[in-house]
Amino acid sequence: HFGSSSRARGAVCVQPLPSDPCARKMAEEAEGGPATASPAAGENKIAESIVSKGENSYYFAHARQKEDLSNAQRIEGDGSRQLAADAMQKLSIAEEVDVGPKVRWREDYAWSDEGAKVKIYVEFPEGALGRPGAKVEVTFSEHKFEAIVHGVAERPEGVTNGEHKLSGEIVPGKCSWRTNSSKSRLSITLVKADEENPWGSLKKHKISKATGWT
Q1: pLDDT score of 52
Q2: Gyration radius of the chain over CA positions
């Protein structure tokens, strides 16, 4: 007498077949295939895995039919079209721009606060500013001036307050420049916006966290 079993003798547990046609076919073949070891045994195990685990089976993707590419159309071009990566690479190449000779910025100038005005003096060799081809370019803004002299040295020479703002605001339209009679000195006149404000220095200094005053 054998012990009773919780499952009825001869009962068959039926699991739903997967919806994928290929997986369903393999599962049906697995149910009717031989139980002995044979080349088809591996396929039966794959089918059983698909039946029990469905789309979560490791073999599910491998059971799909391979796409037929025999009629695929090959796209060819004449070279007029470019890939986006090629275009981006070409745009990243900077073109060389001729900006002319670099200016030698001078710091050996003199300046003085004359109340309503501030004057700056830059010295040159005797007669240098009167040579043929010598040219002076001066620009003014509320917090900056810039003077560049061409034709007196191998490269242009200039004077400016640069990145540092002037100690006070100026009136660009009233500022001026001139050279002396011997063509050896350039004088620049800055007209203050606030005549009552004395300048302790020509430029405002920035505080550097690393080195202190600059």
Answers
A1: 72
A2: 45
Q: Is-contact 36 50, C-beta < 8 A?
A: no
Predicted local confidence at residue 3, as pLDDT: 46
Say how far apart CA 166 and CA 192 lie, in whole Å.
10
Dump the DSSP string for 106-129.
----EEEE-SSEEEEEEE-STTGG
Pairing of strands 110-113, 117-123: antiparallel
Contacts of 207 (CB under 8 A, 6+ apart): 213, 214
Report the alpha-carbon distance of residue 181 to residue 27 in Å, rounded.
108
Burial of residue 14 (CB within 10 Å: 0-12, 13-18, 19+) is exposed
Neighbours of 94 (CB within 10 A): 6
**In whole numbers, what is the pLDDT of the chain averaged over residues?**
77
